[in-house]
Structures are given as C-alpha cells and as structure tokens.
Design brief:
Blueprint (H helix, E strand, L loop, with lengths): L5 H19 L2 H18 L4 H28 L8 H4 L3 E9 L2 E6 L2 E7 L11 E8 L2 E4 L1
Parallel strand pairs: 3-5
Antiparallel strand pairs: 1-2, 1-4, 2-3, 4-5
Helix pairs in contact: 1-2, 2-3
Main location: membrane
GO cellular component, one term: plasma membrane
Keywords: Membrane, Transmembrane, Transmembrane helix
Length: 143
C-alpha cells in the first residue's frame, strides 16, 4: 500500500464518488469527486497531505456553495421552448369552413383543426386569417 502514490488514491476516491453520483443522480457527489481530482493534482505536485485535504475541502465546498444554488434556480424555471398545445397558442391559422361560436374548421400548422370563435357573436369566413388564443381538447379557440 505504501508504494502507491497519494494522487492515485485521490483518483480512486473520485471514481468511488462517481458511483453514487450515477446511481442517485445527486450532483453533490460529482462536486465531491471534482474536489478529489483537485486533491489528486495537488498530490501529483508533491505537496503534503494537509494541503491535499485542504484542496479537497475548499474545491468541494466552493462547488457546492456556488454551483448548487445556480442549478436549483435553473431547475425551477420553465423551459423556454414551447411544445405541444403551448406551441400552437398565438399562431395564425386560415379558415377552411366558416368559424363561429358553434364551430368550423381551420388550417393550423399544416393540419386541419376544428375551431370555434372566442366571441360567440363573431364569425370568420373562408380564407380569413385568425389567431389561436387557446386549445380546448381538439378544438382551437380563435379570434
């Protein structure tokens, strides 16, 4: 055991910390693994055990203190790319069959949709462009 350099042990520790990172998906283990790699670099430079442990602690704590709050903030944000029904809201469509408060047909994003007017007293004629304001089931609500 004495003939294995300290930097190798730090790299083994980094690898060992990578296992629970993958199994539990807790990024803190990854930050500790990076701290162990930093300690391995310090050990490779020939610095003492106290400096190695200090490098491990400083890098690990710094990563946890800085990266973790940033990651938590990003995980609470909604994705900026709208998909599904959200991507259709606000788009323009062309009326294929007269659309009024009781129904009609539009061409929206290359597909034919059933539609109805938001205002029940309003009607849109064939060829007219309308804006989709909402989707209810398989029916587009237009203005």
């Amino acid at each position: 055991m004495d003939d294995i350099d300290a930097w190798v042990w730090w790299l083994v520790g980094a690898g060992a910390l990578g296992i629970p990172l993958v199994v539990t998906a807790m990024p803190e283990f990854g930050m500790l693994a990076v701290g162990a790699v930093a300690a391995a670099v310090v050990a490779g430079l020939g610095l003492g055990t106290v400096i190695q442990v200090l490098a491990f602690v400083v890098v690990s704590v710094a990563l946890i203190a800085v990266v973790r709050p940033i990651a938590a903030r990003h995980s609470r944000q909604r994705p900026q790319l709208a998909t599904g029904i959200d991507a259709l809201k606000g788009r323009q469509a062309v009326v294929l069959e007269r659309v009024d408060g009781s129904g009609g047909r539009i061409k929206l994003a290359g597909e034919i949709w059933s539609a109805r007017a938001l205002a029940t007293d309003r009607a849109y004629e064939v060829g007219q462009e309308v804006d989709v304001v909402d989707i209810e089931g398989a029916t587009a609500i237009v203005i």
